[in-house]
Amino acid sequence: MQKILIIGATSAIAEATARLYASRGDTVYLMARNEERLAVMSKDLAIRGAQKVVTAAFDILEHEQHRSLLESAAETMGGIDVILVAHGILPDQAACEKDPERMRDAFEVNALGTLSLLTLIANRLEAQGSGTLAVIGSVAGDRGRKSNYVYGASKAALHTFLQGLRNRLAGKGINVITIKPGFVDTPMTAAFEKGPLWATPETIAAGIVKAIERRRDVVYLPWFWRLIMLVVRTIPERLFKRLSL
User: Fold this and answer.
1) Is the pTM of this model over 0.85?
2) Angle (nearest 5°) at CA 96 between 149 and 102
3) How do beta strands 218-221 and 82-85 pair?
4) Could you report how far apart the first and last alpha carbons of the chain are, in Å?
5) Of 110, 173, 177, 215, which is most buried, counting CB atoms within 10 Å of its CB?
6) Residue pLDDT, tens place only, 147-176
């Protein structure tokens, strides 16, 4: 049985992942802002077979609480095997272009707050000498596009930071995985028109669990996004800036 900590647990992808671990009889520790939603999830995961479910209120912007919350999770479960960081926001690009404060808010949540948290997580796992850290980023971080470059830039910062953590911890028994989903049909993307490239949270969750089991480094989900983003990254800048992407 594994001990799983999920931060940002009320997101659609995180919830689908938690259900997979619960069905295996693992212990699941959930952190998120919405305590009412956490209570509902806790009951659901217990029914699905989780050995134990614990919840705690968590806000990525309350930096001073991060250390104590991580220590509490580790003490409650007697260690941590897997940490999944799954929180984030999708900012309104047009609003961010008009208001620098909106842009800074996006970076506080998706980048600065997350990097602060990941620093503490890395130190915790390093001291423990084992464990897997999986973090949900986005294919948007692979290249800046005019339609969502604020979001993409925040994810690019996250991806680069995770590369450094992966290199730092590689020889210390700790695996760091960057998860890069493409389009996912979740409440956060409810206003978007859906098409054949869109995936369900359940599909992404299955890919996350498999990536953790196989100790992967960087995973595009679904798999075809690796090929799509390879093409996107190789388009010359002179041509790329003429595209409506």
Assistant:
1) yes
2) 125
3) unpaired
4) 44
5) 110
6) 999 999 999 999 999 999 999 999 999 999
24-58 as b/e, with b when 16 or more CB fall inside 10 Å? eebbbbbbbbeeeebeebbeebeebebbbbbbbeb
- Taking the C-alpha atoms of residue 35 and residue 54, their distance in angstroms, rounded to an integer, is 12
Q: What is the 3-state secondary structure (H, E, C) of 70-115?
A: HHHHHHHHCCCCEEEECCCCCCCHHHHHHCHHHHHHHHHHHHHHHH
Whole-angstrom distance, CA of residue 211 vs CA of residue 209? 5
Backbone angles phi, psi at 147, to 5 degrees: -75, -20
Residues with active-site annotation: 151
H-run or E-run covering 117: helix 113-128
Task: Compute φ and ψ for 194, nearest 5 degrees.
Answer: -95, 155
Q: What is the SS3 assignment for 194? A: coil
